[in-house]
Amino acid sequence: MVVNVPQTAFEILSVFVYCFVLFVICTSRQKVFKTTFYLIFVATGIADVVSIFVNSYLVIQGELVLGPDYQHIASFCVVTSGYTFVMHMIGNLTIAFNRYSAICLAEHYDKIWTPRNTWIAIAMQNLIAIAAVANTIGAKMTYVREPDGSYTFTGLETHLDTVNRFIYFGVCLVYAVISAILNVLLIYKFHRLSRSNEHIKHGHHEKRLFLYSLIVFAFCLLMCAQQIGKVFVIFSGNYDSFLWITMQFFWINDVMVSIPPYSLLVLCSHLRRDSMGLLLCKWRQSGILPASSSKTPATERKALSTIRVTK
After folding, report:
1. What is the number of structural domains in the chain?
2. Domain limits at 99?
3. What is the mean pLDDT of residues 248-261?
């Protein structure tokens, strides 16, 4: 079989963009990037980058028809894929609650999201993800021997795969229900504030972060539909449908984990300015752009100026 070049190219681009965004956030001196939202974004983003790598291997393994000799690598990738999947869902659920508390519980926000509580939330995110895949650690992979002597990778042992399906079903169901409720409440809150002409503190920035959470929620719902649909297909006993819906996971996962960095770049002016400042600096060092004079142009000075910190 031939490797899917467009999908692989998209994955490489997404990894590059995601790593660049994470690097900008982690190295920026702006206090806005030290807030809870961005800390959770970074924790989830690291898992997303790993997810792209391990799921890419699983796709390539099937396309190159790699056999049982590579089952230890496949086992690691399957476990890690499950871990990063749960990390992504729990991380975005936490972000949804963070946005809800920033708008609807603004007077309690600082008490809820103390630095200590933020790190506890990130630790719990990791612990839940590890617990979700603990039963698959060290599990054997199954292969089907084809008439031509090649092997087709089918995944985990049947009983473990069934257990995993229900775990992921539960994670998706919890995420979809709670996130939907939080987002509906947020939409209502924004609508009520707009009608009463009230202004949220740092409203422009908060609205953009809320829009980000809505975009991510929409694409996570696509994955939830795939995982929930897979459970129903298992009960139907239709192998062709099961195989088809299983293969949809990889492109849906690629889109789901790639949306956050692109969305944040578009919606967050702080991130765009820091990114442009970093690129301009690197281009000057490499000689692509001439060194800046003592008088910085107005447009560049604006892009590199200190940004007023918002929550």
Report:
1. 1
2. 5-276
3. 92
Supply the mean pLDDT for the chain.
84
Pairing type for strands 141-145 and 151-156 reads: antiparallel
- Here the CATH number for the domain that contains residue 66 is 1.20.1070.10
Per the domain annotation, does 302 fall within a domain? no
DSSP state letters, 156-210? E-HHHHHHHHHHHHHHHHHHHHHHHHHHHHHHHHHHHHHHTT---TTHHHHHHHH
Report residue 192 as tokens.
């009520």
Q: Which two tokens stand for residue 74?
A: 């496949």
Within 13 A of 282's CA, how many CA atoms are on the CB side?
8
Spatial distance between the Cα atoms of 87 and 127, rounded to a whole number of angstroms: 9
Q: Can you tell me the distance from the alpha carbon of 42 to that of 61, in angstroms, rounded to the nearest whole number? A: 29
Helix (H) and strand (E) counts for the chain? 10, 2
- Exposure string over 85-99, b if 16+ CB within 10 A, otherwise e: bbbbbbbbbbbbbbb
Question: Which run of H or of E encompasses 141?
Answer: strand 141-145
Q: Which two tokens stand for residue 124?
A: 């719990």
* pTM of this structure: 0.84
Q: Fill in the DSSP letter of residue 148.
A: T
SS3 assignment, position 310? coil
Residue 186 covered by a domain: yes
Asked whether residue 291 carries a pLDDT value surpassing 80, the answer given is no
pLDDT confidence of residue 294 = 40
